[in-house]
Amino acid sequence: MSGEEDATVREPLDLIRLSLDERIYVKLRSDRQLRGKLHAFDQHLNMILGDVEEVITTVEIDDETYEEIVRTTKRNIQYLFVRGDGVILVSPPLRTT
Amino acid sequence: MLFFSYFKDLVGQEVTVELKNDLAIRGTLHSVDQYLNIKLENTRVVDQDKFPHMLSVRNCFIRGSVVRYVQLPPDGVDVDLLHDAARREARGG
């Protein structure tokens, strides 16, 4: 490993830098969520993730009963570039029981 | 600059570009620019029945801003190199 790296956290992007090579949770527009290992990112929040699971959430409304049916579609992708303009938030993975 | 450099190194490899309108296009990465506009060759649409618009299109230019994802080839990712570059990148601004 080479070079001096400033380890102090000064700005929000530094917080994301701490998550490099760790699994993260990403909330995207259009009711999508990603969980994967963060390999790279930039100031636009463009990212490359590995071993990604994408979850798309849709709500259908039954014509007769008007009940809301929430559905999720999942998909797995090995390596994914994500364009930053779709990103809402980035976080360590949420604990779900 | 980080991802511009990354995609330049990826030229010649097969990728699948998923657009914000849900269209997914598979093709060979021909070129990329600073805006991450992408030129693909030998393209085919992933779900041809759902998106018959581009059946005869074999080469295309995709505006960077309409891209949602790019699915990358497994051997097109040098994880350590990316980590180092990202650590250096998002700083000073």
TrEMBL record, chain A:
Localisation per UniProt entry: Nucleus
GO molecular function, one term: RNA binding
Superkingdom in the source lineage: Eukaryota
CDD domains reported in the protein's UniProt record: LSm3
GO BP term (any one): mRNA splicing, via spliceosome
Record key words, sorted: mRNA processing, mRNA splicing, Nucleus, Ribonucleoprotein, RNA-binding, Spliceosome
Gene3D superfamilies: 2.30.30.100
UniProt domain Sm: residue ranges: 11-96
GTP-binding in keyword set: no
One cellular component term from this protein's GO annotations in UniProt: spliceosomal complex
Functional note: Component of LSM protein complexes, which are involved in RNA processing. Component of the cytoplasmic LSM1-LSM7 complex which is involved in mRNA degradation by promoting decapping and leading to accurate 5'-3' mRNA decay. The cytoplasmic LSM1-LSM7 complex regulates developmental gene expression by the decapping of specific development-related transcripts. Component of the nuclear LSM2-LSM8 complex which is involved splicing nuclear mRNAs.
Similarity comment: family membership: Belongs to the snRNP Sm proteins family.
Protein's recorded name: Sm-like protein LSM3B
Species assigned in the record: Raphanus sativus (Radish)
TrEMBL record, chain B:
InterPro entries per UniProt: LSM_dom_sf, Sm, Sm_dom_euk/arc, U6_snRNA_Lsm2
One GO molecular-function entry: RNA binding
Top-rank lineage group of the source organism: Eukaryota
GO CC terms: catalytic step 2 spliceosome; Lsm1-7-Pat1 complex; P-body; precatalytic spliceosome; U4/U6 x U5 tri-snRNP complex; U6 snRNP
Entries under SMART domains matching the protein: Sm
Major location (coarse): nucleus
Single Gene Ontology BP annotation: mRNA splicing, via spliceosome
Protein localization: Nucleus
PANTHER family for this protein: SNRNP CORE PROTEIN FAMILY MEMBER, U6 SNRNA-ASSOCIATED SM-LIKE PROTEIN LSM2
Protein family: Belongs to the snRNP Sm proteins family.
Protein name: Sm-like protein LSM2
Organism per entry: Raphanus sativus (Radish)
Highest classification ranks of the organism: Eukaryota, Viridiplantae, Streptophyta, Embryophyta, Tracheophyta
